[in-house]
Amino acid sequence: MTQSNKEKGARSTAAIAGNPWLSSTLIPGSLIAEQQSTFLAILHASLRQSVPPAPMIRALAKEYPGNYSYKLLRVARMIDQGVPWVDALEQEPGVLPSDTILALRLGQQSGITNATFEQLRLESSEELIDREPSYWRPYLAYWLAVSFTMLSIMSFFSYFIGPTLLKMLQEFDMQRGYDKLSSALRYSTLPAAIALGLTCLGILLTWSEGLRTWFAKLLRIPQVSFSQNQASLLRILASNTEHGRPMEGALSTLSKFHANADMRKRLLIARNEIEQGSQEWDAIGSVGLLTAPQQEALQGQSKKDQAWVLRKLAQSLSTHEHYRWGWLQSILHPIVLIAFGLFVLAVSYAFLESLYSIVSELAQDTRWR
After folding, report:
1. Which residues contact 301 (CB under 8 A, 6 or more apart)?
2. Residue range 232-286, pLDDT digits in tens
3. CA 233 to CA 227: how far, in whole Å?
4. Which of 269, 270, 267, 249 is nearest to 258 (CA)?
5. What does pTM read for this prediction?
6. Of 69, 55, 83, 87, nearest to 25 (Cα)?
7. Residue 308, CB half-sphere, CA atoms under 13 Å: how many?
8. Residue range 300-316, pLDDT digits in tens
């Protein structure tokens, strides 16, 4: 009896392993940041336990039946083909944040891979825990409902009530009112249609990381601001400083592998200045990555204290960027709302003016005229 139960359990386990849809959802329910954090933990565990990472990455890919699953499978395939795991990560954009891959690259070359993984996992966990809800989601839900409702109402006016009013104005020979109403009907559904289209585009961009990346490249919009690049570099340099690794070598690696061309240039200049005898924090400050007060705060401190200061500076930059972006989101909503309302008001005014003209014409024989 016990043997039979064991066999049934083994068959059930094999069935689940062979069919990933039994243990995961058809539509990915987690954010891309959560998926990346899980992949980082899996990769860390495989390297810490000296286990081949490719099978574990494939197992994780079965839990994400979306675009991220294909990214993981491509990384596993490259590792099977003998590509080093850091190179495989760099060749698959989006599988991990670019600054995370950069930190792992520096950690590997500096001999502090495990410590870098632990620090990155700690920062990733803190970011997920402290993540605040996005303003965009309620805004998009609001505009989807408003634009769809207004498009329905304006379509009803344009294709049913509007033609009737035009016919009445034409019969009463009110050419001025006819021209105004005709022009208003021509553009009456335009604001609602534009709002609906932009809302649907916003929903797609919110849902798809790949689509956001493609759209940003198409419009040549920088995906990462200077402050975000600066914050990520300070975090990376904090780990390098904490473990006593030479700053010159770190800057050399970062200037070679950083994704941003401007940052690569700045880091290369800082490295050259250190080679010519400048102090490391003075060299980094000379290229705009540290201010004068920040350089003074780092001078004369122990390596551990310098690492703490660098992480606090990076946290301050990230917080400032977050609040600035939140302020932009909060002010953009009323601006769009006012613009939408003014357009609807203009169309409504044309309808009301036409109705007033008809009523005035019909009231000419009454005592009110």
Report:
1. 309
2. 999 999 999 999 899 999 999 999 999 888 899 999 999 999 989 888 899 999 9
3. 10
4. 267
5. 0.71
6. 69
7. 6
8. 889 999 999 999 998 88
